[in-house]
Amino acid sequence: MVPILSTQGGIIMQNRQIRRVYLSLLAAAAVLCIAAGMVWFLRGQPSPAPARYLLKDSGGPLAIYEDIYTHLLPESDVLALQQGVQVADEVELQRRLEDYGL
Question: Is the model's pTM score more than 0.70?
Answer without folding.
Answer: no
